[in-house]
Amino acid sequence: MFEHEVGVWFGLNHPHVVRLFGACHVGTPLFACEYANNGSLEKYLRKHPNEMWQKLHEAALGVQYLHSRNIVHCDLKCNNIVVGGDNKAKLCWGLTLGDTGVFGQRPSELSTASDIYALGMCIVEALQIVEITTTNKQCCEPLPWGNLDNNVVKYRVARLKVLPSRPNVCKDNGLVKRMCAYDSKERIKISTVVDKLAVLARVRSPAVNETE
């Protein structure tokens, strides 16, 4: 699986996906990747909250590229979106490659629709980061569900079919609702997400309504 995953990743070439330059499978697997000078999206937004929609749009372009290649990321979160020296947001895989079947063998429930859901949670997380940064609000870690236990989160999603509370800076979370519909067949496509985020990146500030 390692060689297959590396082969697929090595073949990716997109400005919003971290480039893989080499890998070694002897002993502990090692990857030589493009260096992300500006760190994770989470850290970047703490310094540049006004760039939130732009960076989310760039990340969505990366997801769109993966889906066009029939690749599911499987672990989208703000810590797996980085900002490179070219100031562009890029998708990476952190330590998950090989553990979750990012490219090859994947659990049947993981699909392009699950990536859409995860990207919607990235939007919620990013909004929480911006709210904390711009208001100096003291609260829990800016994860979509805060510090709730995983079992509680699973219950709320699977049984109650609810989304995490929206941050105060988000007056309307219509886009997130469409991305995170409980029925995966009802979730919007990545092309629609890209178009919506492009509009937000052009005309909105982080503290304005998300979308209708």
TrEMBL record:
Example GO molecular function: protein serine/threonine kinase activity
InterPro entries assigned: Kinase-like_dom_sf, Prot_kinase_dom, Ser-Thr/Tyr_kinase_cat_dom, Ser/Thr_kinase_AS, Ser/Thr_Kinases-Pseudokinases
Alphabetical list of CDD domains matching this protein: PKc
Q: Which UniProt keywords apply?
A: Kinase, Serine/threonine-protein kinase, Transferase
Would the keyword Kinase turn up in this protein's UniProt record?
Answer: yes
Q: Which domain of life is it from?
A: Eukaryota
| Pfam families assigned | PK_Tyr_Ser-Thr
- Enumerate the spans annotated as Protein kinase domain: 1-200
* UniProt protein name: Serine/threonine protein kinase
> Which species expresses this protein natively?
Phytophthora megakarya
